[in-house]
Amino acid sequence: MLHHVSLGTSDLARARAFYDPVMRELGLSRTLDVDEAVGYGAGITVFSLNLPADGGAATPGNGVHIAFEVEARAAVEAFFRVAIASGGSADGAPGLRPEYDRHYYAAFVRDPDGNKIEALTFAAA
Fold first, then answer.
1. Residue 2 pLDDT > 90
2. What is the dihedral of CA 99, 1, 39, 29, to 10 degrees?
3. How far is CA 63 from the centre of its chain?
4. Which residues lie below 8 Å from residue 31, measured CB to CB, with a gap of 6+?
5. With left for phi above 0 and alpha for psi between -120 and 50, is residue 93 left, alpha or beta?
6. 83 with 22: CB under 8 angstroms?
7. 73: alpha, beta or left, given left = phi > 0 and alpha = psi -120 to 50?
8. DSSP state of 22
9. The pTM is what?
10. Which CATH superfamily is domain 5-52+64-121 in?
11. Please, are residues 58 and 52 in contact by the beta-carbon 8 Å criterion?
């Protein structure tokens, strides 16, 4: 059973500035805020950004991305708008991804550290 997912960041202040509004858009709030990490969830931390334990620079995983399921296509579009406005970069505009499912509607962004996150829904409209 998956408990939580963590990604690396080189700058917690920048991560907070990006993820606070993005996670709020997904219905999650800050649940953890310590010197080496910031976390988000709905009660318990399910997603966090951590400074690397080895003290090195954070680097995004090649092929790694985290997907958050939302209720409606409008929520995918709002996630994308907020993420871009908060300093993220587009890595796949909102739209259907029929190669996964005929109703798979998603958007992909890169956070300021280059980590890839996605919002998706299977809602038909």
1. no
2. 70
3. 15
4. 39, 40, 41, 43, 44, 45
5. beta
6. yes
7. alpha
8. H
9. 0.94
10. 2,3-Dihydroxybiphenyl 1,2-Dioxygenase, domain 1 (3.10.180.10)
11. yes
Across the strands, what pairs with 117?
66, 109
Instruction: Show me where the domains of the chain are located.
Output: 5-52+64-121
Residue with tokens 């976390």: 39
* C-beta separation of 116 from 91 below 8 A: yes
CA distance 113 to 55: 15
CB-based burial label for 104 (10 Å; 0-12, 13-18, 19+): middle
24-63 pLDDT tens trace: 999 999 999 999 999 999 999 999 999 999 999 999 999 9
Helix axes 73-85, 12-25, angle to 10 degrees: 160
Cα–Cα dist 103/44, whole Å? 30
- Spatial CA neighbour of 66 closest among 84, 79, 81: 79
Is 89 within 8 Å of 110 (Cβ atoms)? yes
